[in-house]
User: Fold this.
Amino acid sequence: MEFLTTLITNVPDGTADATVNDTRSREALRAAELAEQGHLLRLWRPPVEPGEWRTLGLWRADTETELRGILATLPLHKWMTVEITPLNPHPNDPANKKS
Assistant:
C-alpha cells in the first residue's frame, strides 16, 4: 500500500548546530536505506517559510502501523510531526491504463 506523508520538523531551540548537522547526515543515510528497501519512493520540498522544514513523501508499507514503525527509525523523527494519508488506487489513474 502507498502512503502520502507530511513531515514537519521542528528542531528545539538551543540544539547545537553540530547535533543538527549530524542528525541530518544520519537522516540522509537512513532515507537511502529505506529507498533501497522499497519503502521510500519519493520526497518533495513544498514552499515553506524561512526556518520551516516540511517534506512531502510517498512511501510503501503493508500497513499504516508498519509505516509508523519505519518512520520512527528516521533520526529526525524525534523532532517531527507526522501526518499520514493512505492512498487507494483510483480507477482513472493513467498509470493503470493499458495501451
Summary: The chain has a mean pLDDT of 94.
